[in-house]
């Protein structure tokens, strides 16, 4: 079982129902695989189904969204049919998630220390002092300077980039097998985007966590991800080693995307 896939998504279909009752077929047969420790980028124009795919993996689809076909095997267990308890155990502890806007995931009235403490407790950390030590370690890992003095600060006392680092620390707290990051830096300026995405790449290398990174930043994809998948209209139009896809794009969308990189 040494080469078993960590994640094996097969022919996934997702639909939404529009307000007039029509079927919006957002994800049309996406297949993707991920080995332990592997880093994969998912790119594609807005509306191509990237977020819907990511959310469907953990059955977190909003509104009318539903999986209509396919399977999502995590270590061989199909999450599309798993019970709620099994799913809850997977979210956060096996799969850590980082989303676009840190403020929606952080509670403005709780300190950063409290945020981390609750995540660590949820993942079985029984000893308060050990949780505090781990919280400091995690903040250091994601590059928050002087973490010992920041535990009692609230989210608004940090910059946007630092808040995103805090979310990454929270996502890593459960020592997940996979980090799923959906455009985690869209709200940030270009330099900070680069720093955070590079940090994600570095962290996955040092911790052995696999990474699925949804991003538009092809420069960072080239530096941090071994493989890249291109989504277009809800289907995978490219899937290959990053260097190969970037050097010889097969789909016009990918070629256009590369031509637009300064
Ligand atoms: P991406 O993340 O690549 O920009 P999305 O997965 O957000 O794309 O969207 C894929 C398609 O699904 C789009 O046509 C979008 O309008 C539709 N969609 C996404 N979320 C919802 C929702 N909550 N309700 C209805 N349609 C949605
Ligand atoms: Mg999206």
From TrEMBL:
Coiled coil: none
Superkingdom per UniProt: Bacteria
Signal peptide bounds: none
Start and end residues of each ABC transporter domain: 9-258
Subcellular location: Cell membrane
Family: Belongs to the ABC transporter superfamily.
Protein name in the entry: ABC transporter ATP-binding protein
Naturally occurring in which organism (per UniProt): Streptomyces omiyaensis
Covered range of the whole protein: 1 to 262 of 612
